[in-house]
Amino acid sequence: MNASFALKGNVCHxxxxxxxxxxxxxxxxxxxxxxxxxxxxxxxxFAHLEVVDCGDRLILPGLVDLHTHAPQYAFCxxxxxxxxxxxxxxxxxxxxxxxxxxxxxEKAYGIFAQKLKEGATTRAxxxxxxxxxxxxxxxxxxxxxxxxxxxxxxxxDRYAPAELTExxxxxxxxxxxxxxxxxxxxxxxxxxxxxxPRFVPSCTDALMEKLGEIRREYDLPVQSHLSENPDxxxxxxxxxxxxxxxxxxxxxxxxxxxxxxxxxxxxxxxTPEEVQRMLDNGVWVAHCPSSNMNIASxxxxxxxxxxxxxHMGLGTDVSGGSSISMFRAVTDAIQVSxxxxxxxxxxxxxxxxxxxxxxxxxxxxxxxxxxGSFEDGFVFDAIVLDDAAEPSPRPLSAADRLERAFYRxxxxxxxxxxxxxGIKVI
Amino acid sequence: MNASFALKGNVCHxxxxxxxxxxxxxxxxxxxxxxxxxxxxxxxxFAHLEVVDCGDRLILPGLVDLHTHAPQYAFCxxxxxxxxxxxxxxxxxxxxxxxxxxxxxEKAYGIFAQKLKEGATTRAxxxxxxxxxxxxxxxxxxxxxxxxxxxxxxxxDRYAPAELTExxxxxxxxxxxxxxxxxxxxxxxxxxxxxxPRFVPSCTDALMEKLGEIRREYDLPVQSHLSENPDxxxxxxxxxxxxxxxxxxxxxxxxxxxxxxxxxxxxxxxTPEEVQRMLDNGVWVAHCPSSNMNIASxxxxxxxxxxxxxHMGLGTDVSGGSSISMFRAVTDAIQVSxxxxxxxxxxxxxxxxxxxxxxxxxxxxxxxxxxGSFEDGFVFDAIVLDDAAEPSPRPLSAADRLERAFYRxxxxxxxxxxxxxGIKVI
Lengths: 426, 426
What we know:
Two copies of one chain form a homodimer. In chain A, 36% of the residues lie in helices and 23% in strands. Chain A is built from 13 helices and 17 strands. The two termini of chain A are 17 Å apart. At the A-B interface, α2, α9, α11 and α13 of A face α2, α9, α11 and α13 of B.
C-alpha cells in the first residue's frame, strides 16, 4: 500500500559522516516505500511516476530520535534547575506516577504524538512509563500519528517511588509479557515494543534476568541508559560490584547488544573497556546533548565515538532534554562538541554540521535498518522544509539554507510534507 | 506622549538576581511610561486608568540584548563550523563588506529590525558596520520598529579586509563625528549612537585615542569585545605590550568604564586584574553564551561575575550567536553554566532560571538606566506572552509556564503585546 512517486526540490542527505550531498532542483524517487536514489531528472524507468514539485524547498531524510521519554513531555522545559538524581525524584517520577490514570495518559500522549507528528522526526525510540496500559495507549497514538517508533513499557523494581516500583521480578515479567502480547495483537505497522529496563539502579538482577529471557523469547530490541552522570556511575559500581563496568551489568543478562539490538542513551562517562564492549557487541549510542547539559551530566565524546566507528545517533531525551526538536539536537551536538574540544580534549575536533546531520539521520536510522539516507534501497522517510518565512537579503546556497534551517529550528513551523516508509504523514 | 494604563495578568519579574516574583492575575501599572509597581488590584490612585486584561497570559519586563551585530543577521545560523579568527575572515567580514551598498543595507536591516520587533527584545546594544550611511539607515529602521537601541558605527583601521579598513585615524574620526552629528540631527527618541571600536586587534592606538576624544566630547557610551578567545587574547598581548591586560588597552584611552558607560562582550578569559578593573570602573559584561559555544571560544564564568557584583547582562551576539532570541540566550546561559560547573569550577554553581532571567532583564537593562524590572520608578518596558499554543495535560503554575516559555522559545511566536518606554510597539 506504499505510494510510488518522485519529489523535486533541493535534495540533501548525508550518506556518510560529514559527507553532505545536495542536488539543487534534483529528484528523489520513492518506489513502493523504498528510495531509489537522487537524480538530476526523472530516470526513464520511473517516467510513469507522479512528480511532486516542491519548488525551492529543501528535501531531506526524516530525522531519527534515538532516545526520548514520552511521559516527560508534559513538563518539557520546566524543572531544569536540578541535577540527575534530584531531577528524577522531584520532577520526573512525580509526573510518571500520573500515567496510572488512563485519561491523563491519553491526554498527555495525545499532545506528545501531535508534536512529534508536526516536527521533523520520522522515527523514534521511546520510553513510556511502567504502566502497561498507558504505554499501549501511547503506541496506539503513535501508530495513528504516522511517526514510526519503538516504544517501551519501562521496567523498574527498586529505588523508585512506591507507585512506580513493580512488585517483584515475577510480576514485572508477567506484566511485560502481557504488554508485548498486546502490542503484537494490535497489528501495528509502524510501532513496536522494545525491552526497557530503566537503568541499572532501578532494576534488580532478578528483573534483569527476566528481561533478558523476554528479549530472547520475542527477539526484541533493547533500550536503556548508560554512564550518564558520575554519581550514577559510582552508584552502579556499588549496586553491581560483580560487573566489570556499567554496561557489563546489562551484558551479563543479554541486554547489551550482541544478539539483541540495543541502544544506550548518554555514554558520557563510558570507560575504554565499556566502549570496546559496545563496539564488540554493536551497541548504539544515543547521544543526548541537551539533556546532558540540562541535568549537568557532562559532554559525551561524540568525536571519539565517530572515530572508533561506534553506531551512534542523536536523542532529544525529553525532558532531561528541553526540546523535542531534532533540529535542535543537531546544533546542540555541534555546540557541546566545541566545548568538549575547548576544555576536555583538544584532539577531539568539534563535530561539523554535516557530521551532526549524519548522526541525526543515517547514524540513528541504522538502528531501524536502512533508514536516514536517500541511497537506493533505503526506506523512504523524508521531510520537505519550507524556509520562506526566513527572508534573506541575498540568495543563499542550499547548503547555507539547510544549516540555517537547523540553527533557526525551522522544524517548528516549516515542515510542509513528511513521509514515513513512503506514506505521507503530513 | 507616553500612555498611562494598567495590565492585568500573570506578572513576573526579577528585582534581584535569583528573586523571581510572580503575581498571578496581578496588576502592573504604567504611568506616563514609568512603571508604578505590581499590585493585587488597581490602587485607588490609579483607578482612572484603563485596565488591559491579558487574561491568563504572562507579563514580564522586556528583554535587553546587550550585544548583537545587525549586519550579521543576514547569515545567522550559517558558517558555524569555524573558530573566531577564521570565522571573522571567511564569514563575517565578507558579509559586512556588502553594507557599502545602501540598497543592500536597507533590505538587510529591514529584516533585522522586523525580527527584533516581533521578538521579546525591547532594548539592544548593536554593532553596525564601519559604513556610516548604512549604520544611519539601521538607526532609522530601529527607531521606526520601536525597539530602543544604542547603535555603533564600527571603527577599525587594521587587520581587516581593505574594504572594511578605515583610511587612518583622522579620516575615521571625521567619519565618526559626521555619523554622530547625523544621529543627533535626526532627533531619534529611542535610538542613540555608541562609540564602537571593533576590538583591539582592529584598532590602532591613534584610532583609539581619537575615539576616546570623541567619546568625551559627546559624552557617549562605549561598546566593544573583550577576552573572547585564547588566540585573540594572545594576539592583543603582542599588539599592546604596554597594556597590563586586554581591557587595559581600552582603558588607556578612556574607553573602559569610569566616566564612559561601557559594555564589553564576552569576558571569557578575563584575568583577575581585568575583572578588578571592570569592577573599579563599572564596566558591564555582555555574556554571550551561544556565540561562545559556536565559535568555540569557551564559557564565561558568569557565576563568579554575579558573586563579585559585576554589572552583567546577556547578549545574543548574532551571528557568532546563532539565535536572535533572548529567550534562547537565557537558557543558553544556564546550560553553559552547568558545563562550567561540571568541567571547570565545581564551586561555581550553575545559574538558575531566575538568575539568568535577571541577567536578561534588569541585569542588562541597567546599562540603559532603570530598566528591566516592574519596580516603582522603572521605565515601562514589557512584553505579554501567550503560551496557549503549548498545551499541557494538567494546569501548570505561572512559574513553570514562564520557565517552559523560555526553554521552548515561545518568543518566536508568542509575543502578543510589547511596550517600550510605555509605548505600545506590538
